[in-house]
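Quick check before the chapter quiz. The format below is the same one you will see on the exam, so make sure you can read both the input and the output lines.
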Amino acid sequence: MALIEEDKVRDIPGWEKNAPVPICMGGDYRALTFCCKPGYSLTFEFKCHRDETLRELGMNGEEFIRIKEEFSRENDWDSDLVCFGSLSYCCMRRGGCPRRDMALKFRYPDKNKEEIMKIYFMKKKELSERILRSVKDAEGREKVKPYLRLFKDSSLG
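Here is the expected output.
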């Protein structure tokens, strides 16, 4: 089986090639960047694989939250407008999310929508790599290793 399934990736501005679809849609480990905060009931809980994916990598919910919230503070992504108080928990919805898009417009007021979304997905890619690099479990590290190579490969061209 190929590392990346063609129907499980998108080419989006800021991430460019092979951005993973969300975990709930069958995305790979990199898609944890689009997952929301553990510990809350979800509308689509029946198809959420976040906790299962974290367990598979040997990462607990508290560590996941710490990484996302640290990234949020570093990038000035905290916002009362979005779910869980941070853009780091926002999803991929390319078609738009009114709360996320408003929070991004406040964060980047001098940018147009296209520029904002490019920044957003570029930052989500950075967060994705940080999450995967934070996996400490030996088995989990082996599982994420091929995905970490994708970050290096995408920066080459």
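If your answer matched, good. The first strand starts at residue 9 and ends at 12.
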